[in-house]
Amino acid sequence: MNDVIKLQGTTIVKGEIEGEALVIPFPVSFLGMVNTENGTFEIPGSEYDGSTIKNKILIYPFGKGSSGDAIRMWRLQKFDQSPSAILFDKPEPVHIQGAMLLNVPSAFGFEESLIDAIETGDRINISDGVITITKSVSV
Q: Are 19 and 124 a contacting pair, CB within 8 Å?
């Protein structure tokens, strides 16, 4: 049986979607860490190097970096590489703007750290700030 967890957050962009989680457990900058043309993380030496963002529910603790991150997030959409949704623990103005430019379901400020509650591969259902996590079954 799969474990199911529900968490409430603050909605940035309303919407409903279900998909697979891609969890990056450290702060994300879209400038220098993400190739916006092919939608992959470029973090040499990291297990996340080459991870694909497209159609994933992207989860990270908070954004870091420059004011250009919002435009870099928009570029993901321009090249048809955007995530299905974005969830993060702490609000950061530039990444909030980026989520709004992408116009994908997004939220922050959950009762529990998303990094502690979700693993890459878990199934996530988002409905206007409420997420339901179905843990992936390890074999």
A: yes
In this predicted structure, what is the pLDDT of residue 136?
78
Q: Say if residues 25 and 115 touch (Cβ distance below 8 Å).
A: yes
Calpha distance 23→136 (Å, rounded): 13
- Whole-model pTM: value is 0.93
CA distance 106 to 104: 6
Residue 66 annotated among the catalytic residues of the structure: yes
Marked catalytic residue, from 29, 66, 127, 136: 66
Those residues whose C-beta lies under 8 Å from the C-beta of residue 31, and which sit 6 or more positions away, are 65, 66, 68, 69, 72
Tell me 117's DSSP state: H
- Reported as a single tens digit per residue, the pLDDT across 41-51 is 999 999 999 99
Provide φ and ψ at 125, rounded to 5°: -115, 125
Domain limits of the chain? 4-134
Give the domain 4-134 fold.
Glucose Oxidase; domain 1 (3.50.30)
Query: Residue 80's CB: how many other CB atoms inside 10 A?
Result: 10
Instruction: Please check whether residue 127 is in contact with residue 7, taking contact to mean a CB–CB distance below 8 angstroms.
Output: no
